[in-house]
Amino acid sequence: MLCLGCAFLVPRPEYRWRAERYGRDYAAMADRLDGDGNDGEAREYRHLAGQCTDLAHLMRRLEEAEADLGWRPLYRELPAGRPDAEHDDGDHSLGAAVTDEHEKADT
Q: pTM of the predicted model, to two decimals?
């Protein structure tokens, strides 16, 4: 999944294939919509395809910088896992979160 337009998107080069594939798929969808006469949606899908192309280009440049210059992005320096993993009870379901909130409200 790519969060196109999201300020929190981390352009990780190892996921460049996703940006490239989504870009091809969005462009193909735009062509189909164009053929059906749906210009508005076709424009939107072309815009998404362009964002994917830009993202893939950025990912390629980051990959080159890492390989050629020895530069390491910050996310590679961070420890694996979640920061609060030591306090984790292991239940990440939505139902558990809702139940926890209801239990707090009842007390």
A: 0.64
